[in-house]
Backbone:
């Protein structure tokens, strides 16, 4: 019999619960993974013994802060103003960004899946998408992963102002700095290098901080999530322990 799963709770009151979602866990049931049996929503519901309501989502391979409301009314309030919420992500990317800070204002077309989005319109134009990006650290490794004798990587902080599907992943690829471990928008050679060197077959992207106004009181609410052991190990090996 499968053991009951539990997730780290980062914040809990009578209105909101925030958990630390591990990479690889789906937020809720989806037609894309019919055989999956574990989901964040159902797990948190069972942990608390009460209904929880989704407010936003994290991609399956993305780790970090995930919020649920404890009533449909609170869920509506939070979802309505979600683009005003400050979200902070950390990502390991290929290459050295030339900027210290930049804002990417690059519209994105909706990414559709043949199964999950079978009824969605295919003629929609690109929608506004804005992401603030800051380069935190750089390193150069003496390995010829691509066509150069050495390989460069960077740690970046990304704060999306809008909420398009795969926005951070697509924006960083557009900048020429795809996230390591991104099998859809990244580089297979660099993904394989990290898998072989670190045993890290995962997306190196995590939501580490969310700041919002509490849906009932309006007081500032800041929820932070620590990086998991795999992510921390990679950053430490790359010389970025100060950012763990």
Residues:
């Amino acid at each position: 019999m499968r053991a009951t799963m539990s997730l780290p709770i980062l914040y809990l009151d009578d209105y909101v619960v925030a958990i630390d979602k591990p990479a690889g866990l789906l937020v809720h049931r989806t037609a894309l993974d019919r055989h999956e049996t574990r989901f964040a929503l159902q797990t948190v519901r069972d942990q608390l013994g009460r209904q929880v309501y989704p407010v936003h989502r994290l991609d399956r391979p993305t780790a970090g802060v995930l919020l649920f409301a404890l009533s449909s009314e609170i869920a509506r309030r939070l979802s309505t103003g979600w683009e005003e919420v400050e979200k902070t992500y950390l990502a390991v990317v290929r290459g050295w960004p030339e900027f210290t800070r930049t804002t990417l204002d690059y519209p994105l077309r909706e990414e559709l899946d043949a199964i999950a989005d079978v009824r969605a319109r295919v003629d929609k134009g690109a929608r506004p998408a804005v992401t603030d990006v800051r380069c935190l650290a750089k390193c150069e490794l003496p390995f010829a992963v691509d066509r150069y004798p050495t390989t460069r990587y960077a740690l970046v902080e990304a704060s999306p102002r809008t909420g398009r599907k795969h926005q951070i992943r697509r924006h960083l690829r557009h900048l020429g700095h795809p996230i390591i471990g991104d099998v859809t928008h990244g580089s297979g050679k660099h993904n394989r290098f990290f898998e072989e060197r670190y045993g890290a077959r995962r997306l190196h992207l995590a939501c580490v901080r969310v700041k919002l106004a509490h849906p009932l009181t309006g007081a500032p609410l800041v929820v932070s999530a620590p990086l998991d052991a795999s992510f921390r190990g990679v950053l430490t090996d790359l010389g970025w322990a100060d950012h763990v």
User: Anything to note?
Assistant: The radius of gyration is 18 Å. Residues 120 and 168 are 22 Å apart (CA to CA).
